[in-house]
Amino acid sequence: xxxxxxxxxxxxxxxxxxxxxxxxxxxxxxxxxxxxxxxxxxxxxxxxxxxxxxxxxxxxxxxxxxxxxxxxxxxxxxxxxxxxxxxxxxxxxxxxxxxxxxxxxxxxxxxxxxxxxxxxxxxxxxxxxxxxxxxxxxxxxxxxxxxxxxxxxxxxxxxxxxxxxxxxxxxxxxxxxxxxxxxxxxxxxxxxxxxxxxxxxxxxxxxxxxxxxxxxxxxxxxxxxxxxxxxxxxxxxxxxxxxxxxxxxxxxxxxxxxxxxxxxxxxxxxxxxxxxxxxxxxxxxxxxxxxxxxxxxxxxxxxxxxxxxxxxxxxxxxxxxxxxxxxxxxxxxxxxxxxxxxxxxxxxxxxxxxxxxxxxxxxxxxxxxxxxxxxxxxxxxxxxxxxxxxxx
Length: 392
Description:
elongated, dopamine binding, L-tyrosine binding, mainly alpha, L-DOPA binding, Rhopdopsin 7-helix transmembrane proteins
């Protein structure tokens, strides 16, 4: 799981709230983290592998949206591997981890492992948050026809640059002046928690706004495509809206427990004695949400693939062949070609005004295709009856 408490625990003079959750049945907690991360890792990889009987069309190039979705899954996979490695060491070598609690200890390896593994998990999940924000921005720019594959370079610079900068800054402030003598007190740790949760809160607040504006822009595109807004176009817009809703639903399910847990722990830290009897219910709620975090945080990778692509099936095709990988296709193709095909102009001699209309329609179809790519749950009858399909 990903929590700033992991880094705080690396300080020998850690606060009482951090001590409370980290010492609450650590064997059970690490086992839960390993199980959840392992299941999510296996199912995520299974989702991304090509499947037998899946008809894949050759596409000229991948879109920026498909690349971002793949990068989000990669961040989740690498973050899950970090959770498995860290929890396995904690379970297998309890004496090694116990040395962290020794103030001014001479053995630096336990502390180095604690800091390194915690930073790896935080960095990868924070990068995933930034990529999810970039996906919302890119979706909006695509329908506004202001984005393309070239913008992925800017997304890389923003995502990895901000993730590394915030992670390093938060860790440096937390461990000042040194790891063996961290400054104690809630005020000193606040910058670290802000840098950890800033991208998470950004996605929770800004992404729904961008998704809502994208859906409105899609409706305008579909209306302009044929000059009318039929039931087919309305259903197509609804499918894109549902896809955005699934993405935000998964994100809220996986990370709302972190916000609740951190709020409870901050409240406990502000109390003179967190072991007082009136605080029993709050301590219990903090411990329960702590365990829930260990289950839901690593499961984000698999749940996101369900939101992105739907269930892709069990039949994996591991034979190498020169073809487009599934996440780069516009939409998963079935026997009925359940995709939004790239427009093809069948007329060779048309007027200039007709060419302008064709180019505009092609850009519209490509924008809709990018937003719906990878979605295996689309209705084939809707696709073939849609003017976007019939117009070509």
